[in-house]
Amino acid sequence: MPMKPLMTSVMAGGLALMMAIPAQARDFRLGLITPPPHRWTQAAEAFAEDVKQKSGGEHSIAVFPSQQLGNEAQMVQQLQTGALDMAFLTVAEISNRVPDFGALYAPYLVDNIDQAAALLKSDAAIELLDQLPAEAGLVGVGYGMAGLRQVMSRDQLESPADLEGKKLRITPFEPIRDFYMATGAAPTPMPLPAVYDALANGQIDAIDMDFDSILIFKFYERSDKMLISNHMMFPMVGVVSGRIWKDLSAEDRELLQTSMRTQLDAVIDHFQALEKEQEMELRGLDITIHEATKEDFADAIAEWETIWSEKAKSLPSLRKAAAEIKGS
Ligand code: 3HB
């Protein structure tokens, strides 16, 4: 009877599968680079609390802020092997792996924070997430964001021309490196938690940063010249390890997805609501402020465009979505 052993192994396999499926208590881990006072970390904590409650205490999520589990590149590796379950990642690291995401960093893709929020909720942006399972082994649940990018410096910063030769801290990713190279600055990649000390000890002259973090981490104490440029948006993405995702029940997937999306949307709302207020707060401090527009960066933008129109094929569809938002 040649069929018998086969049936037996299929049945045994089926049984093993059935035993794996019933709602199992899970202790998930979520990593992120932002320290506890940052809104992203608070959203991660709220997500953990919500999942605990909605699963009737069955699932827990331990949140590891301040790159306790490593920098974003290391966390992505852990997510790929299944050693880490979830993360809130800057799209910066994602764009290092999937260059198409670089399109989200086109200089002046959006003019203000409301447009950034709307663009991240557009089909064009959401469709990008479909690439993540195959290209990076991650399931992209949705976007969050931080504020638009500004520049702060220890020395004179009246216009983009003053960036020439400055050692300027950037988040480690290529689209922003290419932008600042084109301005004549010397971009220095450095993760957020290292920035304050690097400014204090003179390792860097200037930083690329958002209003919110400038205020939370008091970077103005160490760099009191600000160029309000609003040159780039700064999306974040909430992800689950593809390896972990494939073994989750439909019910657990739904729970994680819904709860994480709610928190990510709240992060977008938060930055959208506070951007103007934060700008006003900074304008009220004892710092020197100048402004720069898209026109002031025209040459750098043209150079960026020649590099990234080749690398990021989604650039036209995102531009189209942004144009629709601007026109509406
Ligand atoms: C950054 O400047 O690298 C950064 C800023 C944020 C959140 C995460 C990273 O507000």
TrEMBL record:
Residues 1-25 form the signal peptide. It holds the Pfam family DctP. CDD domains: PBP2_TRAP_Siap_TeaA_like. Coiled coil: none annotated. InterPro entries: DctP_fam, TRAP_DctP_sf. Keywords: Signal. Gene3D superfamilies: Bacterial extracellular solute-binding protein, family 7. One of its GO terms (molecular function) is carbohydrate binding. GO terms for biological process: transmembrane transport. NCBIfam families: TRAP_S1. PANTHER family: DICARBOXYLATE-BINDING PERIPLASMIC PROTEIN, PTHR33376. This is TRAP-type C4-dicarboxylate transport system, substrate-binding protein. It comes from Marinobacterium lutimaris.
